[in-house]
Amino acid sequence: MTVKKFLCLTLSLIIILFSSSCSMKNDENIEEKKVSFSSEFNFVKSEYEEKYNEINKDLVIKENSSVILISGDTSSGDIEVNLLYDGVIKETYNISKLTEEFFDITELKNGKWVVNIKINKETEGHLKIEVK
């Protein structure tokens, strides 16, 4: 009876360890594969130049992309972020504090996506754009 219990317990532990290690490996790979575009910007007041107060960046959208993530924070001033789809503004975000926003693109993948970023001479902060 004890040998049978021991075998059952050992088999159960092996199954649990195998299944948990497989799920951890899959979670790590999913996050790596999902990001099709990522760009970060740091804005410092003392380095402000008028000619760089507006930036346009093309976004890379893949077939499996589903969301644009906008995250950032400012200690002064603000960052205006416009998401444009085929030249039309679809969403505007004003970052003046810790911000994390998601924009669903599951229905809008075939056109051209551009992020337009505007700052002013008082802006000091960080911005990150990701497409997942």
Summed up:
The protein is of the alpha+beta class.
Q: How large is the count of helical segments?
A: 1
What's the number of domains? 2
β-strand number: 8
CATH first level of the largest domain: Mainly Beta
CATH-defined fold name of the largest domain: Jelly Rolls
Strand order of the biggest β-sheet:
1-8-3-6
Shape: elongated
In angstroms, what is the radius of gyration? 23 Å
Q: Kindly report the oligomeric state of this protein.
A: single chain
Helix content: 25-40%
Extract low-pLDDT stretches.
21-31
- Per CATH, the architecture of the largest domain is Sandwich
How would you describe this structure to a colleague?
With 132 residues, the protein is of the alpha+beta class. The protein folds into two domains: 1-34; 36-131, GOLD domain (Jelly Rolls, Sandwich), CATH 2.60.120.680. The chain contains one helix and eight strands, in the order αββββββββ. It has one helix at 2-34, and strands at 37-43, 54-58, 67-76, 79-85, 88-95, 99-104, 113-118, 124-131. The chain has a four-stranded antiparallel beta sheet with strand order 1-8-3-6, with no helix packed on it. The chain is elongated and about 80 Å long. It starts with a helix and ends with a strand. The model is unreliable at 21-31 (pLDDT under 50).
